[in-house]
Every structure is written in structure tokens, then in C-alpha cells.
Amino acid sequence: MNSREFREFGKAMVDYIADYIDNVRDRDVLPSVTPGYLEKHIPKETPVDGENWKDVLHDVEKLIMPGVTHWHSPHFHAYYPTAQSYPAIVGEMLSAGIGCIGFSWMASPACTELEVITMNWLGKLLGLPEEFLNCSEGPGGGVIQGSASESTLVGLLAAKEKMVRSTQKNNPSLSEGDIKGKLVAYTSDQANSSVEKSGILASVPMIHLPSDTKGRLSGDVLREAIRRDKAAGLIPCYVVATLGTTGTCAFDNLEELGAVCNEEGVWLHVDAAYAGAAFVCPEYRYLMKGVELCDSFTFNAHKWMLVNFDCSALWVKDARYLVEAFNVDRIYLQHQHEGKAPDYRHWQIPLGRRFRALKLWFVLRIYGTEGIRRHIRNHISLAKHFQELVLNDSRFEVVTSNLGLVCFRLQGDDSLTKELLEKVTANKKLYLIPCYTQQKFVIRFVVCSRITTIEDINCSWAEIISHANTIVPYTTDNSIMHEPRKNDYINLTTYQEPDDSMNEKSK
Amino acid sequence: MNSREFREFGKAMVDYIADYIDNVRDRDVLPSVTPGYLEKHIPKETPVDGENWKDVLHDVEKLIMPGVTHWHSPHFHAYYPTAQSYPAIVGEMLSAGIGCIGFSWMASPACTELEVITMNWLGKLLGLPEEFLNCSEGPGGGVIQGSASESTLVGLLAAKEKMVRSTQKNNPSLSEGDIKGKLVAYTSDQANSSVEKSGILASVPMIHLPSDTKGRLSGDVLREAIRRDKAAGLIPCYVVATLGTTGTCAFDNLEELGAVCNEEGVWLHVDAAYAGAAFVCPEYRYLMKGVELCDSFTFNAHKWMLVNFDCSALWVKDARYLVEAFNVDRIYLQHQHEGKAPDYRHWQIPLGRRFRALKLWFVLRIYGTEGIRRHIRNHISLAKHFQELVLNDSRFEVVTSNLGLVCFRLQGDDSLTKELLEKVTANKKLYLIPCYTQQKFVIRFVVCSRITTIEDINCSWAEIISHANTIVPYTTDNSIMHEPRKNDYINLTTYQEPDDSMNEKSK
Predict the structure, then answer these.
(1) Does residue A317 form part of some domain?
(2) Of A481, B208, B271, B410, which has the fewest beta carbons less than 10 angstroms from its beta carbon?
(3) Residue A483's pLDDT is what?
(4) What is the residue range of B196's domain?
(5) Distance, in angstroms, between A442 CA and closest chain B CA?
């Protein structure tokens, strides 16, 4: 394909994507295919001769789209959002066009430098303490990782290496193997599965501590676990606190956990994969109170902050621990500017890395601080609107609600809510997933799509109601407006005045 | 940004990328900036209000491009190629436009299914044994990873888990910790730095075995190392063989290593990151003789096979070992079709994954088998042309040459070649990097850019000569045509008849 054909193909694809999003409401959010559908329509081997791009684009609509779950449909309410925005898509295009691999400064200086700068912008936008930023005097800094899974694993590997070194220093008779065999890490039973996986990958048992009835891990529980394990001869090295759990968007008590970790010399990592984006709005920063006590902090700009996957932002207070854990140098990777700029290959698992800072830069500039805040606040207000709809139907209860997530269920036995979810899913107009909280089976409703309007939320609710009516018959009583039943749900999204002490740090 | 503006911005970016590649020869391949150049031109914080995309695009040319190392310039000869092609760029666009996260079948069926199909296509294209393919009856299969680093680590983690289980089965008294403390892995001293890193990340010592004078690891060396380490009570679990080393593109003796690994029950992983693409041409498949003996095989379609980064293809003979090593299930990830299609999240480190099969599909269809073979053969013939140019100047020697790489130097002391490389690099017209081989400092010359022509190679050579002339004065003697001095270099690229037994397997 030459550049003339690329201009045609590329522009046709721009229109295809714009049309796709403009008309995504016309498609069922869930596909109607069964496993193995695609192989029936596609040859078993690569064609011998190249095909025309028009045939390929035609097959995208004919063969691929019927098997796509539409994550950007306003009726996709599953998991958490994954970001898609026009500036980010164009940023991805440019990244592919330049096609550099920025594993060292020299391999493409702009790739490293724009990442340093945009990670500073982003850290300031979230109100992170200065010491986490590349622009601080100290050894802290930010880096773009591929996923929160990788950020959590990177933190664990750095913490592991740090603990092995410090333990050996104090006990020279212990071998590295002896120490590694005693290391343990902690997180709550509400942590994302990727946290457990990081423990498996790093061969460090990841102990799940019990959260409270609201899904939060407290300092006392951690302190007691550390006391118990140290008495048994184990060596605690890493704690993952979650800000915004996957199930119910609960927030661990970071201040308490931080105090324990700092006392015990244990690395505290914060996984704010989804909720971190809310901290761009000063009124939600109270939810990360205690962040200055952590050693590393990650959130996925590719979830709720408009930057296409992959863009998991990770900041560490002391990047030297990463470099010490990961540095493997060879002559073919060295260059004369070594040491004057971060060589991000030592901050991550892979050697290669693409120019992901471009899409972050595009989003930050084209939306601006206020545009991003509007997006976050809009989603939260849409979730509140949905919550009101649920609360106004007495057949339902809201079990928890926070930021863009509302967990609700039909009053009564779990089987009713399970039946509701099955019916909704079978009709393919909405995508919702369940979780268990407070011993109840609940449906998670997340405002995900960037283009969601209040009409979309009403439409999603109407779809839910239409199935609920077949399970719990509608009576006029159900529709009576009533005051929200305050004790029915945890409402952490109430507006709070910005915490001035935290805002100061962001300047 | 609304869809109308996206249509404008996206199309302007398509033209920008096409213009960039059309005119990339006008730019110095190496940038003239010094560390910290960019922060002088960029504000310290995100703008409050959103900016116009035209201003952003303007700054790309004004601020970013001066700091870019142009990996797709025909005068970029460093490292190995990284892929960039028009079909792949458009595939990336569509992947960003759909923006799904395909961690399970249900999360987007087409995302999983197209990956299954394209990995079958790709495996057949390379002539891999059937048992590695998803379409075989057995437990083998292919998956797209982000990088060869990840593929190597995934293999190591699976091998580690497998060895722990089998060792525990035979020695129930041994604890998991005891076994893990005894595991060792092997690779050659010519392996990529990412192999060593995988050992560090997985806490398994990665022992570097000596390669022969031609950079190849033999079976005897491995057998002796395993014997020695088992006698010392260690447990060998993983061997990484390299097909096409980073330094000189040497090939380990896979048949010998495979025989040893199979005897010893040790997992054999093949890293063919660069060279694997050559196997699309039957005449180079003799270089992977013995591949049927390995447990996992990876090559980077994003290096030499026209698919933009990231697209590291990994095949395993038994995917159950990956799933056993990585599976962490939660209710929010379950769906009714579980088990009927691979849930690729259990085949990799991160939970999230984007729709990377699209760009692979676009490249395979739009180039076709013959188009891809033409690309590979063209690069190899351009490297041969460069080799002839070097051989025809008696001031130089070719130390090794293989596929698209020629390692050459000035005759005499290393300091001459070092001076040459410094001068070439300082002039920024070419990007070349060094390595040591056979106790000599050599310059690696790799044909990297997809658009390279014979005139580009001549132009690169003229630039090298212009600096060489200032170090070793030109005399008429130098230009005398002579027969290639056969003993000066290892020539593995000599055409061999296709190995029929291997080709059969690909059918």
C-alpha cells in the first residue's frame, strides 16, 4: 500500500469511526454471536496476493462488528469505563505514524521528554504531592504503564527487591532465597483480581484481608495481620490499597493504612485505577486523603479520563527502587546522554515502549482541565440521576452508590435480581454485570460512555423496568415519589469543600 | 471535540503521516536536541480551557518532530527494524475507534476470535508445526503479547509453575518455597537483555552460557551446565534459545538444545524476535530446524513483519500451563461462554488487552503472503548489496552478516571503528549502533525502513565512507574489486532449498 492509497484508506476509516460513534445507539450493546462464529466466515489461511483495502473495510462491518461488544454505547454499563475520545484516537494515529520505540532517551528524545512533561501535568491535575512528580527535586517520578496490572506488579517487584536488600543488610547471614521465601504482601478482599495475579507472578503470597461491611480495609486489620505474620517469622513487604474497588467503588482508609506501612517500613501502593480520575475535581480529593504516605500510586487514564487504552499512570516516590529492580544494561542500549533523562525501560517490564504520551498530551490540551472536569462531573451527575430513578421505585433498593457506579437490586431474595440480570442480558440492549456485596447479589450500573446523555440513562432504566415488570409486577405504589432512604446506601459522592491542604500540594 | 471536528482532525493527521513518510529522507535521522529541550517550550501545567486541534498539530511539527529519532527513515540502521505500515496504522485507528477491552470472549467476541484466526494464519505463514496452532486438536495455541520481553516472562512463569508442581508431586516433602529457591534457567551470553530481565522479574537465576565464536549456543554446553547444576542440587526449569541474536543475528543450535531439553524435561522457549519474520520465506526455515522440540516460540510481528508495535506473537504447545500459572477468577469476569473460547487474559500478564488482531489482519490481507515475502527478501537483498559495498573497500572487513544485518568494521585497531561510529553519529545523517563480537568492536548495519531502496543504501554507504576517509585515507587500492573473502564473515543467508519436511508441517 502506497501513501496515496493510505490517504484514501485512512480517511475512509476516520469517517467509519465517526459514523460508528454517531450511530452506536442503533446497535445492540451485546452481540448475538455464539463462540466460533467468525471462523465460519473467514478463510483458513492468509491470502496469497494482497487484497484491496475496500474489501477489508467492507468485512469489518460485515464480519467484525456483529461480534463486537460496544464499550462506547451509552447503554454499556459493565465493568468500568474504558476511555475512547477523538483527541486520543488521533494521538494513537500519530504514535503509529512516527512508530518509534522509546526505550531510551536517544531512541527518541521527544518520546521520553513528552512523557516526563505530561506525567507532571497529570500529577498536578490530580493534586498529587509534589514529591511524586518528575519535576520535583527528589527521586520521584511518573511513567506511563500499559495497565494497572503492570503498575501493581512493578510496585511489588520494586518493593520485593528493596526489602531483600534491607533485610540482607541487617541480617547478612540470610540468603536471598531465605528472605524471598518469607516475603508476604497484603490487600483487601475487595481488590481487583490483577492484584492477586501480581502476587502469583512475583511469587509473593498476596494475603486478602477482610474489608468492613462497606468494602473498606482499615489500618487495624492490617496492623494485626502484620503483627501476626512477623511473629510467625514472615517478612511483610508490600500493601496494595484500593481507592475505588472494582465491585462497589469502596475506598480503603488510606490514612490509616499509610500510618501502619510507614511505621513498619512496608511499601504502600495505591490502586486507584478507576476512581483516580475523579481527583481532577478538587471536591473528590478528600477520597485520597493520606496519599502522601504511599510509595507508589497508579490510576488508569485509559479508564475514566478520556485517553484510549493503554495509558496507566504510575507515580513513585523514589524511582531508584524501580531502576535497581529492573536495570539490565547492554552495550547496544547505551548512549552518551545516559543518566540525564529517565530511561523508562528501567521503570517497566517490557523493553519496548511506544509513544503513548502523544495521546495523553492531545487529550489534556484539547479538553483542558475544565473539559476533563466537566466530563467527570457529568458522569457522576448521570449516576446520581440513575440512583434517583431506582430510589423512586420501591421494588428496588440501592445497596451502594459512589462516583459513576450505582449498585442496586430488587428487594427480596437474590434470585429475583439474578433473574432480572439474566433477562436484561438476554435482550442485549444493555450490558450490566453483577457483584456480591453485604451478602447480597447486586447489579452494578456504571456510567461508561463518553457520549451518555440523561435520555440514555432514562432509556437504560426503562429497559431494566420492562424486565423487572415481568418479575415483580408493577403497582401504583411503586411509582410514588419518596425521599431517598438515606440508610439504604453509602453515599460518598456528596460534595465536600476542597481540602485546602491537599490543593496547596498541587501547586 | 465532536465527530465533525474529529473528521477534520483525523484526516489532517492522515495527510500529516503520509507526508511525513513521503518526505522522511529530508530529515536528519538523529535529532539535534539535548536532554531537557522540550520543557523549555511547553507550559508547566495542563491548559485550563481546551485548545484547538490545529494548534496541537502545529506544535507536533514545531516541538515534537525536532526531538524524534526517525525509525522509519531509510537511513536508520540501528537495533532492528520496528514495523510501520499503512495497513497496520489504519488497523490501530480502528482498534482505537472500537476501543473494546477483550479480556474475555464476552467482553468482545470478535476481539478473541479474530486473534485466534490471525494467529493460526500467522503460524501457518511461518511454517510452525500444527500442534502450536489454535486450530489443532490439542492444547496448543497462539496469542498476541505486547513484547518479546513479556512473551519470555510468560514462558518462564509457566515453566516455573509447571516445574514446581511436578517436583512437588515426586517429592511431597519439599515445600513450594524450597523448590522455587532451587530453580535455574539458561540462555546464551548473546541473548537479548529482556531474557536476563525476565529472570530477575521471575526470581529465577538466568544463567548465561558461553556461545561459540560465531555467537551460537550448542547442546553440549547446555547439557554440561544442567549436569553440573543438578549435581549441586539445583532444578533446571527453562531454557531460552535465540534465533537471531540482537548483536549479530546468530542462531542457537535448536535441534541440539531441543534434544537436551526434551531429555531433561526442561521447558524450551524460542526467542526469534527479529529473525522469525524470515520464516515466512520457505528458504529460511532451515534456520529454525528443531522448532518442533520447543514448548513456546515467540517472534515480533512488530519488528520485521509490517505490523506496528505492539504485536509479539507467542505460540505454546500446551496453553494449559499458562492458564494454570495465571488464572485468577472473579465473579465480575465470568460469563456464560466460559471455556468455549480462550480467555486470553489467562495467557498474559495484564488483565486488559486491546483489539490488536485488527492490525495483524489488515497487514496479512492487504500485503498477502507474497507481499510479505517480497518485503523480507527485499531487505535481505539490500543487506547483501551493502555487504558487497563493504567488501569492495579493503579498508573494511565484514565480521558477520545475516539476514538484514551486516556487522562491519575498519581493519585494524578497534579505536578506528569507534572513531568512525562517533563521527557518523555526530553528523546525524545515519543511526548505527555497535556491538562486540569475536573480541572486536563492530558496527551493526541493519536494513530497517520499509521504504528503503538501493539508492538509500548507496547513500548510507557514501556517508560512512565520507567519515572513513578522514580516518583511513583513501587510496586507489581500496576501490579495487575483489572476490569476497569468504573466511571474513559467517554467511548464513545463502539460499538453501526449502526443507520439505518442515514445509509439510505448515500445511
Answers:
(1) yes
(2) A481
(3) 44
(4) 100-354
(5) 11
